[in-house]
Amino acid sequence: MKNLAHSGTLLVYYLNLFLAVITVQKSPTPQTPGKDKGTSSGHKSAQAADSHRRWFTLMVLAAAMKILLAIHHSFELWNAPEWLGPRLQQQFHHMRFVQLGSFDNLMDEIRDAEVLMGWQLRVDQFRAAQQLRWIHATTAAVHQLMFPELVASEVRLTSSTEIHGPVVAEHAIALVCALAKGLAQTATYQERKHWGQQDLWRSRMRPQEIAGARLLVIGLGAIGKHAIPLAKGLGMRVFAVRQHPERGTEGADRVFSSDELESVLPQSDYVLLAAPLTSKTRALFGDRLFGAMRENACFLNVSRGALVDEAALERALRSHRIRAAALDVFQTEPLPADSSLWELDNLIITPHTAAITENLWERHYVRFTENLRRYTEGKPLLGEVDKQRGY
After folding, report:
1. Boundaries of domain holding 50
2. pTM
3. How far is 341 from 299, CA to CA, in rounded Å?
């Protein structure tokens, strides 16, 4: 009942019930035909009922739970479509949805919002949000929301990791294929109209078989657990590293603890980084872990750029300490034009496109509506974040 008390849902219910009673009480009493006095009285009663109905409708709207949709980004797809707010309002007519096209009025609108659907929030905005009880992040990562005030509060937090995970996993395996077959190199041959068969064979990016290769997946969240069956479908052997191996293998051939990461790296042909960004994983991969990898191994990061020391990765690639790498995420995005990473011929760069799909917002809608029902019914939320762990 705690959520209902905060949201005003019970108040909405009782106001509607009271409105129905008032309407019945104000209904005109049947009159004998031909009596003008009765007709006039009935007309006035109907007008009074309409007046009460309008007044109580305004009260109902004022008392309804306010859900604020504040999703704005420079990249078109990350912005909520115009249909989102109206469609939600149509389905949950007893609630009040406010959709913002920018962050200009966020401070004013969040003061009385109970639910926020978005991906970022400043500390001062959070402090102003005295009615806030739940934040639904449209991103898989939530590190941008892990400031002390929110972590210590009773505000619940859910992420969209299950929405993005399967699509990002597909991208990760596509990058494995591109690295194994030297596809980045063949693309340059095409640009130059050069038949580079001999060149590719003699290069360090000589095509290799995927079947039988060993893939190490670091992190068994939504990305990692969806990447495993895709890799095994190609005949790869899959190892995994997770913080709590006792929670299961998710289909991997073997699972190791985080403490065993450095010892399992030399056994891996491809290393896929899919871990969440926390205080413990920031700059996880640096000179030491790149130095532990096999010389012919490839490194991939589709999680968060801050997990990797990019200078250390560049050193490993330029010195051929590792064979190649593929990155979809970076410490600074967009990646600056003067970044030396662009110059590396053994690095595949994709501009944070791993999660792109035409189905994104329909999936957001399905997940959010399901969680909204759960929230009002006091049931566990899907994708709820453990704020102490950060994921």
Report:
1. 2-63
2. 0.85
3. 14
